[in-house]
Amino acid sequence: MHPDISAVAPFARRAAFYAIFMLMTTHITPGLAGEFHNALSLQGYTGLLNIPNAEVTAEGRFYGLFSDQKESKWRDRVWRQENYMFSVGFFSFAELGGRLTEARGVGARDLSGNVKVKMPFIPEGDYLPALALGMQDVGGGAHILQTAYAVATEKLWRVRFSIGYGRGPDRMKGVFGGAELKAFDWLYLLGEYDTTETNVGARLITPEFFGIPVNFQVTAKTSLSHKPDHFEFGFGMQFPLGLDHFNRKPLPAVPGKASAGTAEGEAAPPRGDVFATAQSPGDKSPAPGDSAGDTVKDSLLRLRERLAAKGFQNVRVGRRGMNLLVIEYENSRFNHNEMDGLGVVAGMAVIHSPTGFESLRLVLKKKDIRVVQLDAPFNDIRMFLEDAGKLEQLQKSLRVTTDIADDKEVGYVAERANPSWLRASLLVYPGLKTFIGTEVGVFDYLLSIKPDLYVNTWKGSVINARWDIPVSWSENFDDGKAFRSFRKDSQLDRLMLFQAIKAAPTIMASLGAGMLFPDTYGTLNELFWTPGSGTHRFSFKHVFADDTSRHATHEVYLGGYRYYFSPLELYLEGTGGRFWDQDNGFKLTLKRFFGDTSFLVFYKNTETVDRQHVQTGGVQVAFPLTPRKDMRPYPLQLRGSDEWSYAQEVVIATPGHRNPVGTSTGVNPTPDFNLERLFYNRDRLSVEYIKNHLLRLRDAYATYVLQR
Fold this sequence. Notes:
By secondary structure, this protein is mainly beta. Helix content is 14%, strand content 44%. A hairpin with a 4-residue loop joins strand 26 and strand 27. Helix 3 packs antiparallel against helix 4 and helix 4 crosses helix 9. The longest helix is centred in the first third of the chain and has 24 residues.
C-alpha cells in the first residue's frame, strides 16, 4: 500500500520550515545562552505548550494566562473553550495556581488548582537535571483534567530539554517530553510530545517597559497530529505581587551631623548652616540655628512641630538629660507599612535634633496606646541612613520591645501635638463578591462601594460606621435569578463602638459592640497574647450576636495559634472552635508577604449544624488600596483601604460529585478594626520583621524626608 503523498507533503513542508528557522536563529544569535524565561504553559503550570518542565513560577510573582485551546479528547464536540489560569511563586521551589475551564458543547465547567514543587538543594550545572513533582486539577469532585507527574529538565547551551511521566487519568498519561529553544531573549521555539499528540509553537515575551516590572506573553501552538494549519493561542502577563522598597543606594550625609566617613573627634559643620540647609522650603518657623540664644528645648519644640506638620498624631518629644531623646507618635498617614512612618520619624530626628544625644527612643502609638518601643544609638542610625552597608551594625544595636519603659525621668517639652481626639478618617474602597465556575455561570460578580467612617473618641476607642452601596452586578444577581439574595439594597451594614486595651506588655484586647451586620446586633471581642519577640502568638475570639431578621443567634468561640518564620516571612496559623454559622471545626492557613501584599492559602474542615461534613480550600490576596502616603489626618482624612482583600474558595467534594454553592462554613467574623491589622501592622511588628526590613525604613527616609 503506497502512502498518500498529498497528505504527507504539507506536514513535510512545515517540519522543514521549523527546522530551517531554528537553524537560522541558532546561527545568527551565538551569544544568547543566558537564563531562560519561565512562563505558563497552556495548561496553567510552568512549562512548554501542554507539558510541564521542572521550573516553577518566580518567587513572589503572579502569572496570569487566557487560552482558547481545546482539549484534544473533546475538541470535535465543542465549538469554543475558554481557559483562565494563574500561578503564584509561593516559594522559590513551589508554585500554586488555579484554573477555570469552560468547554461549551460538552458542558465541562471546572474550577481547580495546580501545584508543583521543584526539588530543592540540587545544584545548578554539573549536568544535574532539575527535578519537579506536580499535580493538575487538585480538589473538587468532578475531575476532568486531573494528572500527577514527575519531570526532569536540563539546559544545554540555548536548548532546554524536559522529559517526564504522568499518571493521568484524565490527561498526560505516560511518557512525555519536549524542548525549548531560546532564539532571542524575547522569542522561544517550542516542541513537545504530550503523550497523545506532537505539538509545536512559539512564545513571545515582552521586556519591561519604562522600568515597570510587568511582562506580557503570547503563545501560539499547533498540533502536528491533528491540524497543523490550525493555531491556538495563549495571552498572559506577569508581575510581582509586591515591592519591598529596600533602599541600598548611597545617600547624602545627614545634614549637620558628622558623616560616616568623618574622623573621630572631627568637628561637625556650624549649627546655623545645619538647620538652614535642613529646613523645608515651606517651613515658616525660624530654624534653631538662626539665633545664638537657641536652646535644646527650642530645638525639640521645633522637631515636635515638624512631626505634627508631617501629619503624625499624638506627638510628644522629650529627653532624659543629653543622653536619650524620646519621640512618641502615631502614624495615620503612611498606611502601607509602619516601617515607612518609622523611617520618616527617625530621619527627621537625626536631622533636626540638637547634637549631643547618644540614643534615640521611638515609641509607636495606635489610638493613643503605646504599642512598641525601639531604642538605638544615634550614631548607628545616622551612619545607616547614609550607608546601607551599616545595616548589620544597626540590627545588632537596635532594641525592639512591647514593654514600654517608664518615662518618669523623661522631660517632655510640651503636651502632645496634633491630638487624635475626635479626628475622623473616611475610607472609600470597593466591595467585590464573586461566584466562579458554578452550576449557573462561569463568572458572576457584585461590585459595590463601601464608605467606611472611623471617629476617634477616647484613648483606644473608635466609632465605626460602614455603608454598602451596590453599583454593578452580573445577570445572575438580578431579580428572580440564582444569586439575588446576595444583593442587598444600599444600606448601613456596620455601626459599632470598639475599645482596645493593652492589658500587659504582651497582651492586647479589643472589645466591640453594636450592629455587626445588618439586623445583627451583639458583641465581638478578641484577645492576643504575643510572648517574647513575636514568633508565637495565641489568640481567642468571642462573638455573641442576634440576627433579628432570621431570629437566629450566633455564638462564636475560636482559639488560635500563629507561628512566624522570619527568613521566609511565612505565617502558619491554626484556628479552631465554633464559627459564625455555628459549624464546628478548624481552619489552617499559610501566608507569605511579598512587599505589602500578602498571599494566603487555606484549608477548612468543619461540621455544620445539620451534621454535614464540609471541606473547602482556597486562596486570598490582600494589599493596600491607597497611596503609600495618604493625605494629612485632619480635620477629616479621606483615603483608601490599607488592606483590601479578595478570596476565592472551592468545596473539596467527594469524587464524582459537583462543587455546589452552599452554606458558607469556617467564617471567622473579622471587622476592619482588629488587633492584627491596626495595632500590629498586619502582623508585622515582631522584632525579626522590623530588623529584617530596616532597608524599608531607609527608603522612606530617602523618599519622604530627603526628597520633600
